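R.M. (postdoc): so does anyone remember the format we settled on? I'll just put the structure tokens first.
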């Protein structure tokens, strides 16, 4: 796969790294959804239409991208295990913080 096939390479990487079918399917669905939405706006712009992106839509793209990147980071070799926080640890920090 060449440089232009980065989505296919990313999908292949996800399939090889996912710890379960569910994790794989969810991350691939998010990747496909985000890609299709961005492609739709690109296609509209290329056809000469004046596609407008609202602040709400832009926020959704940013949030979707952020969530997808978080999922991809969980698949990387450097991903850390979840840290368990005890309720008393959180309560102590809240009580100690200035108001």
């Amino acid at each position: 796969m060449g440089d232009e096939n980065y989505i296919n390479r990313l999908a292949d990487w996800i399939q090889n790294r996912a710890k379960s079918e569910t994790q794989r399917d969810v991350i691939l669905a998010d990747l496909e959804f985000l890609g299709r939405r961005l492609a739709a706006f690109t296609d509209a712009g290329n056809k000469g239409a004046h596609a407008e992106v609202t602040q709400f839509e832009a926020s959704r793209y940013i949030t979707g991208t952020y969530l997808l990147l978080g999922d991809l980071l969980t698949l990387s070799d450097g991903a850390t295990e979840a840290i368990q926080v005890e309720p008393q640890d959180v309560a102590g920090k809240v009580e100690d913080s200035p108001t």
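R.M.: ...and that's the designed sequence above, right after the tokens. Also worth knowing: Residues 30 and 68 are 7 Å apart (CA to CA). The first helix runs from residue 6 to 17.
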